[in-house]
Design goal:
Layout lengths: L1 H5 L14 H29 L7 H15 L4 E3 L4 E3 L4 H19 L11 H18 L6 E3 L1 H26 L26 H32 L3 H7 L3 H13 L1 H13 L3 E3 L4 E3 L2 E3 L16 E2 L8 H6 L1 H12 L1 H7 L18 H26 L11 E3 L1 H59 L2 H29 L8
Antiparallel strand pairs: 1-2, 1-3, 4-8, 5-6, 6-7
Helix pairs in contact: 2-3, 2-4, 2-5, 2-9, 3-5, 4-6, 5-6, 7-10, 7-12, 7-14, 10-14, 12-14, 12-15, 13-15, 14-15
């Protein structure tokens, strides 16, 4: 009785009652409100600090809601003419996906019974409820207007994908998780000469390394462009920033939010196709064709119009980005031989690469081409997400063209990684082959030397001398045994010969 009075029968969350549905709904609402606060607090702060703000608090909240929707990829209309605004601030999108992923993983990892529509589904429903409220608030007359059906569908789709990914990761990491199936079984279904055995992990690592290298190349180009613009006196970029503290802070925050977009545009520039800043424009290493561009600090980093010249050096960055994937695939293609060459302790394959033996040359090329294809698809998708429309008419097309950027990334990858991986594979296999040949030669030389010494000994020593040596050895052994026996008798108190 005391135990029942000391604690409730059903706790929240409890061991018998589980996590209730309202708690999961509130988790989704809280996740959405946190992301909305990240956007809304700076916007409201700038509205308060701006002395000439002609809009009320409703206009500021509508702007915050529109930016939040844009971060999810939802289209927004701008101005009285209803010009489409579809450029997605990728930093806000990554923040939203990360929050949803974490919330869904936390809810799905909790044990105990839950309602049928609870868990990640409830988190998604709570998030979408906030999205519906934001969309309804942003409809009607104003500088930025939302469209109810498209915006709710886009936010719901993104939230559903992020929530499903988080729930799946939590279930896969749980103690009762089913065994994972091998990833990318298509490679293992190829014919034997073209099959990179166990190459899924190596291909995945190469794709990640290539993506990181290309993103780093885009970041380097953005940093160099910013440094050159600052060294040349700022140009019209500094004129844009000189409009008061509030405008300065607002433009800087907007530049930070759009920085991932600029990095991906720099990646497209390094790959060769470049990107567009309006219809009929191109910004590429081979040359730049621009017209009037909006006054925005990030556009001040664009190169001047004319032929590329020394800017063609940017094409070397994708070459450097393909070196690490080539090394990874080459070492995986060499199999245990590369592992033995890198670590002489055990020489056992760790499962990251080539299985029981080295891949054939054709299988190595197939693995490189598979990684190149996946890299091209990922770069094309990232380029498509980073672009969009800034307005109607001429500004209806901004960013890289996916149908050019993706094939360029795959082509650069294959051009660098195919010969690089084959070279690494060759060099990883050669030391083992040379070492085995040297050991075989040493064994043959030692065997021949021993046989020659035995033959020489048999020829130089006569039979009579060998017989005398054997007789002396036998007498010495008998004498040693007699002395040992006498020493034992003395220790026992008896003298030798008194028996």
């Amino acid at each position: 009785m005391t135990q029942l009075m000391g604690r409730p029968i059903l706790e929240l969350p409890g061991e018998l009652g589980g996590r209730p549905l309202p708690a999961d709904l509130l988790a989704g609402v809280r996740t959405a409100l946190v992301g909305l606060a990240v956007v809304g607090v700076p916007v409201l702060g700038l509205w308060v600090a701006t002395p000439y703000a002609d809009n009320g608090a409703t206009g500021a909240t509508r702007l915050a809601g529109a930016l939040w929707l844009l971060g999810h990829g939802a289209p927004v209309l701008r101005g009285d003419a209803g010009a489409p605004l579809t450029v997605t601030p990728l930093l806000l999108g990554v923040l939203a996906v990360a929050q949803l992923y974490r919330a869904a993983a936390g809810v799905a990892s909790r044990r105990g019974p839950r309602p049928r529509w609870g868990g990640p589904v409830a988190v998604w429903a709570g998030y979408c409820a906030v999205a519906v409220a934001v969309v309804l608030h942003c409809t009607g007359a104003g500088l930025f207007r939302a469209r109810v059906l498209p915006d709710v569908l886009v936010v719901g789709l993104l939230a559903g994908l992020a929530t499903a990914a988080g729930a799946r990761s939590a279930r896969a990491a749980g103690p009762d998780a089913p065994p994972r199936r091998p990833a990318w079984q298509l490679l293992d279904r190829l014919p034997a000469p073209l099959r990179p055995v166990g190459g899924a992990a190596a291909v995945r690592g190469a794709v990640l390394a290539a993506g990181a290298g290309l993103v780093a190349a885009g970041g380097v180009l953005v940093a160099v462009a910013a440094a050159l613009d600052a060294a040349s006196g700022g140009g019209h970029g500094m004129a844009v920033l000189g409009r008061g503290p509030a405008a300065l802070v607002g433009l800087l925050l907007l530049g930070v939010v759009l920085l991932p977009n600029a990095v991906l545009w720099g990646t497209a520039y390094a790959l060769g196709p470049g990107f567009a800043v309006g219809s009929g424009t191109v910004v590429a290493p081979g040359g730049t064709v621009l017209g009037p561009v909006p006054e925005f600090p990030m556009f001040a980093l664009l190169p001047a119009e004319g032929p590329g010249g020394w800017r063609l050096a940017a094409l070397l960055l994708p070459v450097l980005a393909g070196v690490v994937p080539a090394v990874l695939l080459g070492r995986a293609a060499a199999g245990p031989c590369a592992a033995a060459g890198a670590d002489d302790s055990d020489g056992v394959d760790d499962g990251d690469g080539g299985g029981d033996g080295p891949w054939p040359l054709a299988a190595t090329v197939v693995a490189v081409l598979a990684a190149a294809l996946l890299t091209g698809v990922a770069v094309a998708a990232a380029g498509w997400l980073s672009g969009g429309a800034l307005a109607g008419g001429r500004m209806a097309r901004l960013g890289p063209a996916p149908w050019w950027t993706g094939p360029a990334a795959a082509g650069w990858f294959a051009l660098v990684a195919v010969p690089g991986a084959l070279l690494v594979r060759h060099r990883a296999l050669c030391p083992a082959t040379v070492l085995e040949a040297d050991e075989e030669v040493d064994r043959e030389v030692e065997g021949q030397t021993a046989e020659k010494l035995d033959a020489d000994a048999d020829e130089e020593v006569p039979p009579a001398a060998r017989a005398r040596s054997a007789e002396r050895l036998r007498r010495g052994v008998l004498l040693l045994r007699a002395r040992g026996y006498a020493a034992v008798l003395r220790l026992g108190g008896r003298a030798p010969g008194n028996d």
